[in-house]
């Protein structure tokens, strides 16, 4: 159930776009209480989730290729490839232009699925808050893996819980062939009830992702790939305040945790938060 800070439990969504309305209704029907400081903060999350879904679809059609970190490549006019296969933004370009180049000039890029997730998230934030705010907040972009990113204040909950469009999930391939370690799992963006985007696999359902991963198992393996009980998403409260030009950002936003975190172990590493049962 969705609750606004003043106790409001219903919102007029008649004028909202279908993707935002669908996510709202799905969260509102869930027995978990999702509390927001304001209707604007709620709408920001829904808009960003919708933008994440769209950015994933756009990346699928960008002509950017899948490659391991060892074989990654990028457009040198905007990015410097680091030794570990990540992309460091050049200091003589704008962050907004560097991100958009990946989508408009995809043939110049190849990267791993973990890097793809970060690219999708930054593109979604850019389209949600606009160029000026994006360039102010993300002046030194580094694209590698969502597991090392700190700018988005990512939150990972390592247990089974409801997931929604725009969430980041992971399919694990426990018996991966050592010759194909890049297929040890697939980071995906949830697009709908059973629709996912995984860079290198494309847009398909859970069965399609599992079937692709299973093709890269050890010979004779009988252990299938599977969707693990874990969900990752940006700190929406932090990003909302940052985009609202609140300087300094409140400690509430910096320390914000979802209601699912109550009574669980919370570990903060840099700008990332991990929550365990």
UniProtKB/TrEMBL annotation:
The keyword Transferase applies. The keyword Transferase applies. Keywords: Sporulation, Transferase. InterPro entries: Gln_gamma-glutamylTfrase_bac. It comes from the Bacteria. One of its GO terms (biological process) is sporulation resulting in formation of a cellular spore. It holds the Pfam family TGL. One of its GO terms (molecular function) is protein-glutamine gamma-glutamyltransferase activity. This is Protein-glutamine gamma-glutamyltransferase.
